[in-house]
Amino acid sequence: MAARAKNKFLMFILSLVPGVGHFYLGLMNRGLQFMIAFFGGIFLMDFFDLQGFAVFMPVIWFYALFDALQMASAIRDEESIEDVPVIPWDKLRVIDTWIGWGLIALGAYLIIRRVLSPLLPVIYSIQYIQIGLLAILLIAGGIKILMPRKERGE
């Protein structure tokens, strides 16, 4: 970690985009996780037509902003800072379970919303087949993640 203090005002301005303030501080892992969570969440909400989850975007944004401010203060006070991930993925097996069930739920939602309901008036369409295949891949990915590690070959 860089020993010299960073400009806190510049870091605040950069933190208005989730993750960029962390990049400025040299915390690449944290910054990347915040950036993926924020922009990935926006993409998924748009793609899956889930406007109800928009309430979580300000939570991610504010958490990233205040985390960057805390990290800047710790660096200024010369506390030791490690670039630890926001979520310690390697230590949380339960996260695999949630991701797996989430992928299955999203895949099922896609099949119902974008494939089955439009098929009532229209029998075949390339767009619906593509969405259906994506949904099946999401469900398969969720099932793969949920399989015990021995069966996955790990």
Topology (elements, then pairings):
Elements: H1 8-14, H2 20-25, H3 28-47, H4 56-76, H5 93-119, H6 126-146, H7 149-152
Features:
154 residues; mainly alpha; elongated
Q: In words, what does this structure look like?
A:
With 154 residues, the chain is mostly helical. It has two domains: 1-87, no CATH class; 88-154. The protein is 69% helix and 0% strand. It has seven helices and no strands. Helix 5 runs antiparallel to helix 6 (126-146). The longest helix has 27 residues, at 93-119. 18% of the residues are buried. The model has no long low-confidence stretch (mean pLDDT 79).
Radius of gyration of CA atoms, rounded to a whole number: 20 Å
Quickly count the helices: 7
Computed structural class: mainly alpha
What number of structural domains do the residues give?
2
H and E string: HHHHHHH
- Strand count: 0
Strand content: under 5%
The outline comes out as: elongated
Question: What are the segments in which pLDDT stays under 50 over at least 5 consecutive residues?
Answer: none
Q: Averaged pLDDT, please?
A: 79
Task: Give the distance, in angstroms, between the N- and C-terminal Cα atoms.
Answer: 33 Å
Major beta sheet summary: none
Helical coverage, percent range = 55-70%
